[in-house]
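## tool: complex_structure
## caller: assistant
## args:
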Amino acid sequence: MAEQHNHQPPDRSRRQFLKYSGAAISGAVIGGVIGGAIAGGFKKKAPAPAPTPTTPGGQAAAVADYNQATMYFTQSQLQITQAAVERIFPKDDLGPGAAELGVAYYIDHQLASPWGINGREYRTGPYVKGEATQGDYQSIHRTEVFNLGLIAIQDASMKKYNNKFPDLADDQKDAILTLLEKGDIEVINGITGTSFFNLLRTLTLEGVYADPLYGGNKNMQGWKMRKYPGNQMSYTNIMEKAEFVTMEPMSLRDHIAH
Amino acid sequence: MATKMPKVPVVIVGMGWLGGIIAAELSKQGVKVVGLERGKPRATEDYYMVHDELRYAMRYDLMQDLSKETITFRNTSKMTALPMRSYGSFLLGEGLGGSGIHWNGQTFRFLPYDFEIHSKTVERYGKKKIPDGMLLQDWGITYDELEPYFYKFEEVAGISGEQEQTPMVGKRSKPFPTKPMLKTPILKMFEDATKKLGYHPYMMPSANLSEQYTNPDGITRAACQYCGYCERFGCEYGAKADPVVTVLPVANKTGNFELRPYSNVVEVLHDGKKASGVVYVNTVTGERYEQPADVVILASYVFNNVRLLLTSKLGKPYDPKTGKGVVGKNYCYQTNGGSATGFFDDKEFNLYAGAGSLGMEIPDFNGDNFDHTNLNFLHGAGIRISQTGQRPIATNPVPKGTPTWGAEFKKQSLKYANNTLTVSPQGSSLPWQHHYLDLDPTFKDAYGLPLMRITFDFEDQDREMIKFMASKTEEIMKEMNPTSIGVSNKLGPYNIVPYQSTHNTGGAIMGADPSTSVVNSYLQMWDAENVFVVGASAFPHNSGYNPTGTVGALAYRAVDGIAKYLKSGGMVV
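## result:
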């Protein structure tokens, strides 16, 4: 019989975390990361500025990002995806678009994860089409949905403009995506363009705003655009403030002990 | 064949809030308890990387693995139920602490009206007010009888709240153990607006500790840091009350409690009158074990409590055609909709910061706090504003008419990222003869057992209520003076795809009459005196509040019942 493990002594990562946060733990406090230290004025002993994951001196952009290679996509699939997500969340004077933020790589990495093969979902048949209120019923994995969806985009581009999707002008790309969104392009029997478009849109927002560890939101620029501070330890001191407080964002990388 | 384990006095199925509470209290009394948990063990250090919206909120890291087990759903009995293949409407917990790990911590008490809903409705409006097919029934217990148990839960969890309470909510015998959460500018706006309109706003009772607190068991926990990661997340501070940081350490300390994780119970063994124990599968090795016990306690989520009764053929299954039988009856949910969103063009709020239970609510349109004589619905909703921490993937509000993608969407979603506030009702859900739980005839779980089948839809009662509530939320939002407002006052059919609420209730309901309920007011089963079915499965209807406070109170009440039963046997009421 498995033993209970819910009350392990502090392990190495815990000690590193405490060391990093600059806090001391009170032995009497159960469960809390920094326990009584927080109540004792955590903010006064705030963690040292987070070491940035990039090269010092702001040269990050010039350094190769070894995360940007594909685990799942072919090069052509990557290009179509990149072109599509950039139209969904384009670069403008407010900041970078989905392409620059690494969203296509984010999607590639997600498709290569258990999520891409619907790993934690119910996959027993029969697969029966029900009412819209009953949700998805497809038997194919998300990876396949993506393969077919990207083909549908490319085929529609060739048919309408006799050109590949990534090579279309912006308004032409938008026209194709609009057809997809409206369901005028069918991906495959049972999968409408609309459901693929919605998947693409959701993944775009995820790639713009998920923690940078997943390959998108490059250098937290997605967060910076909307003044989201990412992963902070405490907001207690600003809760009652009337004015908006802008903070330099922190990522999960900042919580890995060095 | 199952390996037979040595007999124990008490075996508990499911180690969330309820299993934890019962394990702690009984083991303190010297009773040997075995707790079976189908998922993994957990500790606070599991959450040091928890500020990860994608992993926890979008990919449901802490939730039940649906590849092994899910539910099936249909709106009406004319439809074929289909499995919920991926998450949507509600999120099922798994592992030590269960759903108690990933909750927000909003800890209300149901109203005195709720416990006597049938009597009080008839008393005020007459019998005709209850529509045909609505199975309103009293709970077999009053608020006053349950009051000490409410307090017990609040004291253990360290629930915070205001000392002065409006008489619209149940009277408290003792003040909240901790002070209210911090009142932010957003909450003050709601407070001012609702007060101006003559309503009675109060701070949401919260399980996100407002200050460092030591409970009666000597457990000390640190204060909430308002980090904005509560719902769908575990708390890395242990500030949010959950079973792992409150009751389970107490049970462990006694030496009378044994936790067995990775143990999925597949059957309650019984002879039709009494249970003799349970059979479980070790989910790691696939081996089967029989655990004999004097008392069997079902303390898993609503669906598994009811499913285990039905697959074990314990109790009388409910038949929606005849209305006879009880197991599976009165499945209810929560009715959400009718919210008003205000866009404040020239303001910015610190919306990224917050806590799961940081908010204010008015009780003026909940329960029977307002006159229903000329209304086409019963009960009501709590109307609230909350500041739980807006995370960027899930929260991209834009005013109506804005495209959903492209340059304009980007511009508007960035513009409104920090200045959009929403006032929402959380509506009650009342029981109907044709809403119920039973076993699916087609789909099975990883252990070969039928899935739970839900037959449920929204009714005119719900649509009328939402329309009414939308007029109130709009009124409040107008008073808060935004640049523009968006209101939704329509409620479609119940759809399992969008997330709504993890407040599923009923199916093994409590009451004073064995012909209309599964358990008595100690949650002891009428048809098997040594089986206690604990949880929101016992609710005869769902109120316009979050259920955990009431579930916790019922668990402490059940503890008294179990202790009595261990002493003297027989039905304890």
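## assistant note: The radius of gyration of chain A is 23 Å. The longest strand of chain A covers residues 186-188. Handing back to user.
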